C-alpha cells in the first residue's frame, strides 16, 4: 500500500529519532503494539504518527511519501528518514546543527541536504519547505538528483494543506488496536548517551555519584578557564555534562541571562551521545526548550564546524568541506598527498637541486614499500605544523620553518633541504584541493578565525556569542581550532583577560599530531587566560583487570617532553572484577580474522551487537577486511566518527571499526585486532608514528568495560613490543592458537 504523506508531531519526532528503523518499515509505517508514547492513525490515505499529547497547534513534519516522494526508489530509506528527522529537529530548535557533511543549502525558506552518506556515492538531495504553516511546520517535499536551484523545485502545497486539514481528526481519533503482531521493521531504543551515562538524574550525580575531583570541577565558578585532564574512562565527559546542565539550570532559575556552548570534535558525539546524556540528567528537557530573557536558546551543542557553517554558509557558495574525521576523508587526503608527492618527485629542481645532497631522504620518499608510512608522516606534518601554523611556501613563516627548531614528536626533518621538499609537497597538495573545489577543515577554520575578527562579528557577538564554553575532546582540536574559541565568547563573559572555557582532554587518545601543533602551551592557555588544572584518576568504565593492563601499557608510551601535559594517571577501577585480558597469537592473518569474528559473532548474539566491538589497529588491513567476503554480513561497519548511529543498528552483529571512530564510546567486549610487531618493526619509523600507534592501541583497549581480547599474527611479526610490559607484569595472558 502506498500512502501520500507521513505526518509527525514534534514529540513523536524526538521518539523516532532514537529508533532503529529498517527498510521494510517504509511501506506501512506501522508501530509495534506495545509502543509507548506513540500512535499511528490513517486518514485520507495519509499516515499520522503522533505522540500522546499531540495537538493541532503543535509543530509538524510532513513528508511526501507518494509516487514522486522522498522514499521512492531509495536504497537506504532509513538514512534519508534520519536526516529528515534531524532537519525537522533543527527547524524546531535552532540549537541543533546540521552536519557539515550533509551540505545544507538554503534558498529563502527552502533547504536541501544530501539524503545519504557520502560513502554511498549517491547525489540525491532532499528538499524541504520551511515556510509551511507560516514557518511553524517543515515539509519534506521532493528529492533531486544532485543539487538543483531550489526556487525551480516547487512543493505540492496542496498535499501539505490536506495533511494539516486532517490533523485535528487524527489527533482526536481513538487509536485502533493494531491488527497484527510481528516485526514491523522498527525498534525504539535508548539513545547512546543515556546508555553511557545511565538513568541517574542531575541531583543523583551531584549528591551521590561524582567523586571529589569531579565535584570540585562542577563547582568551579565562571571567572576563569579550567582544564580537566584524565585518562580514558575517568568520567571527563560525564563531569562536563553534569556541569553544563547544572550551570545552565542554575542560571535559568536566577537571572537567566547566560548562554552555554558545548563543543565536541565529532558531530555524532554531540548529537547522538551528549544530547542523550543531557536528557538523562534533565528529563524535564528544560535544557533543550529554555531561552534566556533575551530570547536566546540556553545551550548550543555541536562542533566548531557546525558553528562556522551556521555563520558562513559554505554550501550556499558551492564549496565542499573535506572532512578528515572518517576513513573516507582520510583515504581521500592520502590520495591527494600521494599525488602531490609524485608530482614533486618529478620536479627536476627538487630532485636535482634542492635534494642533491639528500640521497637517503630522496630514496625514502621514492621507495614504494615505504610510501604509505611517508604519506602518513606527511599528513601529520601538515596537520601538526604547516596547517596548524598557517605556514605557506614563500612566506616569512616558511622561512622560520625552514631553519627553526623542531620538537621531538615531529617528523625528523633535520636539514633545510628536506623541509623545503616537504613545503613543496604541501604546496602541491593545496593546489589539488583547490582544483577539486574542496575546502579542508583547516582552511575552514582559518576563514572562521578571520570572520571572528570582522566588524560584523564584533556587533553580533554581543547577541550571538556565548557566556560559557565547554569543549570536550580538546585533544582532537588543532591549534587553529583552539585559537578561535576565545572569539566566540560574548564580550561580557571575560573577567580581566580570563574566559570561562572548560575543556576536557586526554592527550594519549589523540591519534594524529594535530593536537600537538603549536606546542603544549595551548593546553594551558589557548588565549583565554591561564587555566586551572583538575586531574581525574578513577576509572569508572573498565574492570580492575583491564585498568591494570592500561596502566602497564602506559610504560610503552614514548617519553615526551610535554611539560607534564602528556601524563595522565589511572589510579584504580571502580568496577567489579572481570577476566584478565588475553592476547591470542595466530599463525596467519586469515586464521586470526576467521577466529576473532567467529568469537565476536557469538558474543554479539549473546549480549547484543552494540556491546561488542572489533577494532583494527592497522589502517590498510581495516580497508582490506571491510571488503573481505569471508566476514561479510557478520558485522556492522563504523568507518567514520560521524556514523555513530550505526551502533544502534547493530542488533546482533558486532561493530567493526578502528579505535579513532569509536572514541567517546564504550563496549562490554572489545577485540583489538593486529597488535603486530611489523607496525613498529621498521627501524626508520619516526617517533611520531610510534606514538600515534601506541595512542591508538590505548584508545582501542580503553573502550572495553568487561572483556578485552587482543590478537596478533605471526605473519605480521607476532606480538608488538608495546605488549611486553603488560605480559611481564601479568596483566595480559598470552595464548598461542594452532600448531
Ligand atoms: N563518579 C562516577 N561514578 C560512577 N560512574 C561514573 C562516574 N563518572 C563517570 N562515570 C561513568 O563512567 C563511564 C565513562 O565516563 P566518560 O565517558 O565521561 O569518561 P571519559 O573520561 O570521557 O572517557 P574517554 O576519554 O575514554 O571518552 C560512563 O559510563 C560514566 O557514566
Task: Describe, in plain words, how this protein is organized in 3D.
This protein folds into four domains: 5-187, no CATH class; 192-305 and 465-536, P-loop containing nucleotide triphosphate hydrolases (Rossmann fold, 3-Layer(aba) Sandwich); 335-439, no CATH class; 545-736, 3-Layer(aba) Sandwich (Rossmann fold), CATH 3.40.50.300. β25, α26 and β26 form a beta-alpha-beta unit. The protein has 739 residues and is of the alpha/beta class. The radius of gyration is 26 Å and the shape is globular. It has 27 helices and 27 strands. Helix content is 37%, strand content 17%. It has an eight-stranded mixed β-sheet with strand order 3-4-1-5-9-8-7-6, sandwiched between helices. Bound molecules: adenosine-5'-triphosphate. Residues 196-198, 209-211, 214, 230, 232-238, 506, 509, 540-541, 664, 702 line the site of adenosine-5'-triphosphate.
